[in-house]
Structures are given as structure tokens and as C-alpha cells.
Amino acid sequence: MKLVASGVQESLSGLDDNARFRTVVMPHIDEAYRLARWLTGNRTDAEDVVQDASLRAFRAIREFAGGSPRSWLLSIVRNTAYSWLRKNRPATIFTVEDLEAVELETAKPGESNDETPEAALIAKADAEQLRIAIAALPTPFRETLVLRDIEGLDYREIAEATEVPIGTVMSRLARARRRLIATIQNDR
Amino acid sequence: MTRSKSDDNSVLLVHAYLDGELDPANTLGITQQMAEAPALAAEAERVKALQQAIHERLPREAAPAGLHARIETSVGGLKRDRARPSWRAMAASIALTAMVTGSSTWLVASSQQQPTMVADALVSDHIRALMAPEPVDVASSDRHTVKPWFNGRIPSSPRVVDLGKEDFPLVGGRVDVVGRTPVSTLVYRRAKHLISLTAVPAESQYELDRSPRSVNGYNVVHWVENGVSYWAISDLEAKELDDFAQLFRTSQTVL
Questions:
Q1: Could you tell me the residue range of the domain that residue B44 belongs to?
Q2: A18 CA to chain B: closest CA distance, Å?
């Protein structure tokens, strides 16, 4: 990953802003769109968020200084989506205090493994079940899970994109998955 | 059933192991633990099943047709939009720009000798921010959220003060671009008016008299402190914008 990243950075020198934008941002529009879709919950809003995020990325394109272009763009998409949610769906946004409460709550014993569903049951979950369960996750858990289990980012990239330490990525991911597993089990 | 801290850590390691994020030593450790603890092994099986179900049943949808093209168009428009005011201002100093080549030199030279150009660029940024769905990239009235957001986005860390008690609540921050240098802009609010406050690194003091007091109907207040050139831009009345600048300058930076 390091090699690729420095390759991108090197190939950027001498490019004007538009060419940089085409190199850094345009290859990752699909990922940007999917993240925005999971965060806003629908296609139209996701498109608006990605368009707005692209403009912001363009304005800040000189600021991209190596690292993963994908994480860089996704962090902008995420911030844009959060601004959008704050404005249009204030009820869905978690404050830091809410989040701490959620993390504490799910850290408590009991939520998880007293009744352990069989792996076979999880494996049978259908698309609709999975989609609803993921959509119901608190935003910070949802974005972490989506970036890992749907988009396939590694932990470092997720930490960059969501602007938290890797340890937080790890605990959010584990909690997000446990919540999904519990939801699927309760559906039965 | 109670779980200890080390149980929690083991769970995280199981997940990290399945994600291929562990080094060989940790991999060895956790596979041994899984062999000895059925609960951990069962966790691993469930997570694997979940990952596989997601992978097989939630296809990754491509962006709608036309989104790529719309983005390229809107970015192209932005480029032209940005260039216009700069070129107008540059026309007045064509001799200067002809001599200057490096982009950072351009900024220093322009901010020293042509505060008008900086003001023009920042007023354009302010207007563009007002037209966007949100005028900020990070929205928070908490300076402890806004200040760290700039880490890694711009070379210096801006001074962020809380003026909420004085009825200038912080709205958030964004990165603007002057010349080709990313700079920090804080956004404050007074009633329904937004104030963009941009910090531009300044090489030396320059003649403040030459800064415009208004551009395209927006009021501009400009001052220099500690080697940083500050620009406050708003549709607020000039008097109130002066008050804001005064409050910002005299407020303590509390970390």
C-alpha cells in the first residue's frame, strides 16, 4: 500500500488541479457513492452528498499529500454526509455523549453471548435482513462496518477515513458485527 | 457471565485475525487461544458466516450513470469560477505576476503587495460556501472539535476561540485555498449572518491601509497578528464585523 501511495503522490507532481482531481478523486466515486448511500439511506441524497464532497475535494486537492487517496476522499464524503445529516436528519446524528453511552452499553455483558446463535443461522441471513440490520446500526458503527466488510478497506485506511485511532476502529467493528449477529438471531 | 478486559481484547484480536490484520506473533497467540476457548472459536465462526453472507448477498452498487460526468462538469465550472476574480485582480499587477513563478511565492508576493487579490479570493470562497449545502466541512460549536480537525489538512494549526457568550457562536471550519495554499477558515455566526474568518500565513507586515474594506458588497476586516494575516468576511454590518474582529483579537486562546 505504501508503494502505491507514494506512486500516486509522485505522479501528482507537475499536475494541475484538474488533473490531480482526476487522478485522486475520480477513481473512487463508486466507493464514495456507496458510503454516502449507507450514511444518508437513499440514492438521491447520496448523489447530492457525493457531488458536494467532490467540490470540497477539488478545493482541497493540493492538500492531499500521500497516503490512501481512497481514505482521503472517503473522509471528505463522510464529513459532508454528516453535515447533511445534521441539517436534514438531526435525529439520526449521534453526539459524542450518545456515542459514549452506546459504546458503554454494548460493552456490557449480556448483550452478546449468553444465547449464541449458530454460525449456520447467520449464514442464512438474506439480503433484506442484512440491509435492514446494517441500516439500523448507529452511524459510527455502520460506517466502520461498511468500510471493512463491504468496501474491504484495511484498518489503517478506515482509521484515516473515519478520523479515529485504529483501536477505536477495532472495537467499533467488533461491536457492529455483534449487533448484526444479535439482530439476525432475534429475527428468527 | 462477566467478561474481563483480556476477554474483550481477545475478541478484538479474533476479529482482527479474520480481517488479516495481525502480525505472525499475534496470529499464533490468538489461534492458540481459539483452540483452547470454544467461545472464541464460535465467535470466529459467526463472524466468518456474517462476512460471507454480506459478501454474497449485498452487491456493491455502482454510482448512478451520469454521476461521474456531472462531477467533472461541476468541477470544471468551479475552476473557471475561481479563475475569474483572480484574473481581474491580476490584470492590475500584470508586471508582478509575470516575474513570479512559484506558487508559494505568488501567495507571499500577492498578500504583501496585493491584499485585494487575497480579499477577492476569500470573498469568492465565502460566497461559494454560502451556496453549498453547508458552509463548513466540519460543523461544530466546540473549538475542541474544530481545531483538531485541521490537523493534517493544513500545515499550521489555527487559533480557535469561543465567542458564543458574545453572541458569535462558532459554526465550524473549512479549508479554503488562496493562490495554491490551503488555509484554515473558521465560520462564526451572528443572528442569520455568517462570518468567514481565514488565517493566511503572512511573511511580514504589510500595509493594512491597502486592504479593501468591502468586496462585491461583502465587508472585509483584515489584521495581522503573530505572523498570521486574518481576514474576516461577512455580509454583517461593518461596525459589527469590527466588533467581532476586536473580540477575536482580544480573546484568550484556551487550549
A1: 6-57
A2: 8
Closest residue in A to B47 (Cα) is: A177
CB contacts of B15 in chain A (<8 Å) are 170, 173-174, 177
Between B170 and A101, name the one with better pLDDT: B170
Question: Which value does ipTM take for this structure?
Answer: 0.87
Same-domain check for residues A117 and A65: no
B53·A58 Cβ contact <8 A: no
Residues 191-250 of B with CB under 8 A from A: none
Reduce the DSSP state of residue A39 to 3 states and report it. Answer: helix
Domain of A55 in residue numbering reads as 2-90
Window 132-171 of B: residues touching A by CB (8 A cutoff) are 132-134, 136-139, 149, 153-154
- For residue B180, the chain A residue with the least C-alpha distance is A62
Task: Please name the residues in contact with B115: beta carbons below 8 A apart, sequence gap of 6 or more.
Answer: B206, B207, B208, B210, B211, B212, B222
A71 in the same domain as A20: yes
- Assess contact for B87 and A48: CB atoms under 8 A: no
Q: Do A83 and B64 touch (CB under 8 A)?
A: no
Q: Are residues B65 and B45 in contact, defined by beta-carbon separation less than 8 angstroms?
A: no
Residue B230, burial from CB neighbour count under 10 angstroms (0-12, 13-18, 19+): buried
Regarding whether B102 and B45 lie in a shared domain, the answer is no
Tell me, yes or no, whether A26 and A39 share the same domain.
Answer: yes
**What residues form DSSP beta bridges with B220?**
B233
Asked if B94 has any chain A CB less than 8 Å from its own CB, the reply is no
Q: For B144-178, write each residue's pLDDT tens digit.
A: 888 888 887 887 788 899 898 889 999 999 988 77
| C-beta separation of A182 from A112 below 8 A | yes
List the CATH number of the domain containing A77: 1.10.1740.10
Same domain, A50 and A111: no
CB contact under 8 A, A29 and B1: no
pTM: predicted TM-score of the whole model, two decimal places: 0.58
Quick check: B43 pLDDT over 60?
yes
Residue B205, pLDDT above cutoff 60: no
Which three three-digit cell numbers place residue B77? 465550472
Any idea how long chain A is?
188
Total domain count, chain B: 2
Domain for residue B35, yes or no?
A: yes
Q: Do A50 and B137 touch (CB under 8 A)?
A: no
